[in-house]
Amino acid sequence: MEYDYLVVGAGLFGAVFAQQLKESGKSVLVIDRRKHIGGNCYSYSYEDTGILVHAYGTHIFHTSDQRTWDYINRFTAFNRYQHRVLTTYGSKVFAMPINLGTINAYFGLNLRPKDAEAFLASKREPIPSPQNLEEKAISLIGRELYEAFIRGYTRKQWGCDPRQLPAGVITRLPIRNSFHDSYFDDVYQGIPLEGYTPIFERMLAGVPIELGVDFLADREAWMKRAKRVVYTGPIDRYFEYCHGRLNWRSVRFETDRLAESDYQGTSVMNYADESVPYTRIHEPKHLHLEKPWNSAATVIVREFSCVDNDAPYYPVNFESDRDVYAKYADLERSEQRVVFGGRLAKYKYYDMHQVIPAALTAVKKELTGS
Predict the structure, then answer these.
(1) Among this protein's residues, is 185 annotated catalytic?
(2) Catalytic residue of the set 196, 280, 321, 328
(3) Do the domain assignments include residue 283?
(4) What is the tens place of the pLDDT at every residue in 328-341?
């Protein structure tokens, strides 16, 4: 059977695209290299605990865009979880992102909001045009806070000196002069009540899916299965690395069940010290305080940043990467039968709330030409 569309990748971009195609009356086949749908959003119930674990790290849905919120609510209901992150540094625990509580605790002060800006200004180093993450951070929060909370964590997360990373990376982390410690400021925020996997099951209901198959291992045969292809995998791999490999970071996880009711008292604990091998520990039961969990057990997930070319997660985006990606983007435009989308295909750090509107816009353009 020849389908109208073959969607390569059952992650969020591919699932939204496929759902919209099917809703428009198109025939669609979805394939994925993994053995499950949902991409990095995949969640599952851990053994006999019933605890919903996010297999690839904690995913919090947040958005201020009404269209995005209305769309995702077609497939799930959310709890009222508000994301708050803590960071362990030097055997002490601090609130993240950096806020007035962090500043007071770190420096042993009792500043009020009106004093915080002047205090930070006294710590900043004047760098008129920051050229990298380190310079940008020091220009925002000063060297002491940078050395404590940013430098070591960044080196672990990205596997390089922060001076090699673009200045814009640090702008994803807000700096606050109040005690406001919620990680996101979006109007809507929460965790799907049943986890993420049911969202994808509902999106892809009625769509044929083949899992554990590699599109690029038999590209010619798969291309014959459909008139058009939606590709969400790594763009450098699609073009057989003809312009070289892009730099990606990957993540590996160690999951343990513990015979205690609460290990760390929060859903995510970061570890800023470079001497600690993992970047953070997740305790997923804290994402669902509305559920009556088994008080005799908890699950924790240690997260380690690494390089794994078979499992790319995050685009590193060195300056050399931007040059290489530009060449692949030129090749992309020559692929008349293929639509490229998502974090891996666009070499862009998309969050879930950014992927959905990107997919909705792309599929509308595909179907209507505008």
Answers:
(1) no
(2) 280
(3) no
(4) 999 999 999 999 99
Q: Which of 119, 137, 172 is the last residue of a domain?
A: 172
Residue of 32, 134, 236, 303 marked catalytic:
303
| Cα 265 from Cα 103, distance rounded (Å) | 22
What gap in Å lies between CA 360 and CA 245, rounded to an integer? 29
Question: Is the CB of residue 41 less than 8 Å from the CB of residue 59?
Answer: yes
Q: Of the listed 81, 151, 176, 343, which one is catalytic?
A: 176
Domain hosting 50: range is 3-79+190-246+314-368
Q: Are 195 and 43 a contacting pair, CB within 8 Å? A: yes
Collapsed DSSP state (helix, strand, coil) of residue 63: strand
pLDDT 10s digits, 229-283:
999 999 999 999 999 999 999 999 999 999 999 999 999 999 999 999 999 999 9
In-domain check, residue 137: yes
Q: What is the CATH number of the domain that holds 68?
A: 3.40.50.720
- Reading phi first (left if > 0) and then psi (alpha if -120 to 50, else beta), residue 212 is in left
239 and 195 belong to one structural domain: yes
Q: Which of 115, 249, 263, 314 is catalytic?
A: 249
What is the number of domains present in the chain? 2
> Lowest-confidence range among 51-60, 158-167, 188-197, 208-217?
158-167
- Phi/psi region, residue 214 (left: phi>0; alpha: psi -120 to 50; beta: rest), is beta
DSSP 262-282: -SSSSSEEEE--TTSSSSEEE
- The yes-or-no answer on residue 151 being catalytic is no
Between strands 298-306 and 280-282, the pairing is antiparallel
CA distance 276 to 87: 12
Catalytic site residue 219?
A: no
**100 and 166 inside one domain:** yes
* 303 carries an active-site annotation: yes
Torsion of CA 328, 329, 334, 337, to 10 degrees: 100
